[in-house]
Design brief:
GO molecular function: alcohol-forming long-chain fatty acyl-CoA reductase activity; alcohol-forming very long-chain fatty acyl-CoA reductase activity
Radius of gyration: 24 Å
Pfam families: NAD_binding_4, Sterile
Oligomer: single chain
Family: Belongs to the fatty acyl-CoA reductase family.
Strand order of the largest sheet: 3-2-1-4
Order of helices and strands: HEHEHHHEHEHEEHEHEHHHHH
Largest sheet: 4 strands, parallel
Function: Catalyzes the reduction of fatty acyl-CoA to fatty alcohols.
Keywords: Lipid biosynthesis, Lipid metabolism, NADP, Oxidoreductase
Distance between the termini: 49 Å
Number of helices: 14
Structural class: alpha/beta
Strand content: 5-15%
Length: 339
Amino acid sequence: MELESMPKFLEKKTILVTGATGFLAKAFLEKILRVQPDVRRLYLLIRASDLASATQRLHNEVIGKDLFRIVQEKWCANLDSFISEKVIAVPSNVYYENLGVKDCQLRKDMWTELDIILNSAATTRFDERTIDGVISAYGKGKLKCFLGHHETIFDIIPADMVVNCMIVAMVAYANQPYEIILHVGSSWRNPIKFSRFRNVIVRYFAENPLFSNNGKSIRVENVTVLSSMASFRAYMAIRYLMPLKVFQIANAVICQYYQDSIIDHKRKIKSVIRLAELYKPFVFFMGRFDDSNTEKLQMATSESGVDSHLFGFDPKCIDWEDYLMNTHIPGLIKYALKI
């Protein structure tokens, strides 16, 4: 398949997407509907007990989001009919046999029509999204220390580049008889180290502080950097655990007057320790991931004259400071952050 015919390749194709309400799947769906509205059909597997619930989640958690603003503006009053023609919400649960799709006729229709399957099913929480939990906690003034070695490389990549690579790969390897692994990341060709990442977010919130519910700006500090788990444990013991122990003794003397406050402090300390354990494998990881297969695909895309603005995924074009300062962190604050 010639890469320059990429949008044409997707025309009249039927695609099955699992985990359709997830972060990456929504970006994929938006891209398909925007660049190739003549796709035949998109079956979206959505965790739900029935069709009504799945359809409601589709409109509330997917199509109704600001991510689909361009698609919404393009189709205007015809949006509902366009979506109903192209997109089918399928109540399912991928944990079960047949992906939890109970409608036998629907299963038969899907298996007969399908050209492409995108498996994007996952279970995640906000604080597990590789760097957003750290940015969020720091901006709210709740992060007093950073855990990580200054030489650690963060393998991060914008979601739209991942989606672009997935679409290009669908075309490039449509008829390949073998499996190929494409790592879409930045650690090999355009790495950003922990020290640089830390400096950027410190600068961002110093210049653009968040505001608390009472309207006051949240002051952030140039926090302590802990370069090992041993230093983290020592820091937590001296700064929090020992004072808490003294507080508990004093509280016992005054008939548990500050018990609620102690419970709150314990909860916060437990949360910090949990986050440290969660991030430990990443913030001390010194390896980099070989993305040579992805680079070859990206070079073939460029040589074929594919619009790099529309389908680009070259990490070398990313200016990390500009991206974090002007795109990622503002987007996080606007769409995901709650004070």
